[in-house]
Design goal:
The chain is 72% helix and 0% strand. It is globular, with a radius of gyration of 22 Å. By secondary structure, the protein is mainly alpha-helical. Helix 9 packs antiparallel against helix 13, helix 9 packs parallel to helix 14 and helix 10 crosses helix 13. The protein has 16 helices and no strands.
């Protein structure tokens, strides 16, 4: 499954920027629905293995594509709120998954039920038009105008006159030219590397913590539910929204990583202290860490999409998502260390990873209050630097 997600970076990242956002996302839906539903009818490991590979590939194509379309259809003043609402939907999906897994003990039935949920989720995407930003950066002005007309009709807003001039920058390059541009523009390369590191660290900690509940003497079902509930609470109450609004995208990521590191430090300091017959203090602090994990995922996701130019947004987003999958592999292996060493050492590792990630994230650019760039040249203009490799202008 995770191998399939890693192949996403090789195949789908350029598809988002070359084929289109919507078409690539629909391909992801098709692959995920077919492979997930088919998993409910097989009893062979040899058949299930390629199905899981395809499922992993398709799932993260859907996630990346839906995020790209959401950002490019949302005005800058509503982007933070829209992202918080979308994150709440993610949490609700987690609860549905928990309910399906708890209610349907047969794994084949779980696969079929999950495939049905994904099929329902895909229906609205059929009505979603292609991103006008994508059309414009590819020089397809007529298609972009058609999308604007559809949107104005849908939301009953004033139509854009055909005589109105639309200003845009053309960028139509192939996959290899895109890759070269990332290395040519210093600021885009720096931001992408920092974001990749942040995604990998938060994923490592997040997945490592999920596999820690049993090691810390906690019920896996109730722990994951409470973990997701606390994440939903911090989003639904507006804490994440106002945190990003007040501190900004980058600063919120840094502060959330610092808070996450602090909860693990406190769990080490209070290890073994009982608050009741069933609960210890380090367990409570570990559950509290989910508040900060949620507070990282939101703004770092938003920051990734806003810092990347439209011409490279699919590539950067897929690259960061693939980095997170590396963390998803590392995290469970760190949880295995509970078998060989004191739990305080493992929790200390999580604290150190979060602290380092916060320090590294401080050196990133901040997209707060800035328009979304269309091409790599826009990044240099927006962030007051024209530094590129090889001194190219």
């Amino acid at each position: 499954y995770l191998l399939g997600t890693e192949i996403t970076i090789i195949v789908s990242n350029s598809n988002f920027d070359i084929i289109s956002r919507k078409k690539t996302t629909l391909i992801g839906f098709f692959l995920t629905i077919v492979s997930t539903t088919a998993g409910g009818f097989v009893n062979s490991y040899d058949v299930m293995l390629p199905l899981r590979f395809i499922q992993g590939f398709g799932t993260f194509v859907i996630l990346t594509g839906s995020d790209l379309l959401t950002l490019e259809f949302t005005p800058s003043n509503l982007r933070n709120l829209t992202h918080v609402v979308g994150s709440c939907a993610w949490t609700v999906g987690t609860w549905v998954t928990i309910g399906i897994s708890y209610g349907l003990k047969d794994w084949q039935h779980i696969f079929m039920a999950t495939g049905g949920c994904i099929l329902l989720y895909s229906v609205p995407f059929l009505a979603v038009p292609e991103s006008p930003r994508f059309h414009l950066v590819k020089g397809k002005e007529s298609e972009a105008r058609a999308t604007f007309k559809k949107m104005s009709k849908l939301f009953k807003t004033e139509k854009i006159p055909d005589s109105m001039e639309i200003t845009y920058q053309l960028y139509d390059k192939n996959y290899f030219q895109q890759m070269l541009d990332i290395f040519k523009y210093f600021l885009m390369l720096k931001n992408t590397i920092i974001l990749m590191f942040g995604w990998m660290m938060i994923s490592t900690i997040s997945y490592g913590l999920v596999f820690s509940w049993g090691k810390l003497g906690m019920n896996i079902y109730s722990s994951i539910f409470i973990n997701s509930l606390s994440g939903f609470t911090i989003k639904a109450t507006g804490i994440t929204y106002y945190g990003v609004k007040f501190f900004g995208r980058k600063n919120m990521v840094v502060l959330a990583f610092a808070g996450l590191s602090s909860t693990f430090v406190l769990s080490v300091a209070c290890y073994g202290v009982k608050v009741s017959e069933d609960w210890r203090l380090e367990q409570i602090f570990c559950l509290c860490s989910s508040l900060f994990i949620t507070s990282v995922w939101g703004p770092i996701n938003l920051l990734t999409r806003e810092l990347a130019p439209t011409s490279h947004r699919g590539m950067v987003a897929a690259t960061c998502s693939a980095s997170a999958r590396v963390g998803a592999v590392i995290g469970p292996y760190l949880a295995l260390l509970y078998n060989d060493m004191d739990a305080r050492y493992v929790l200390g590792i999580f604290a150190g990873l979060a602290g380092v990630a916060g320090i590294v994230s401080w050196f990133n650019s901040d997209s707060t209050g800035k328009p979304v760039p269309s091409t790599p040249d826009d990044i240099a203009d927006l962030y007051n630097t024209h530094k590129k490799f090889n001194n190219q202008e």
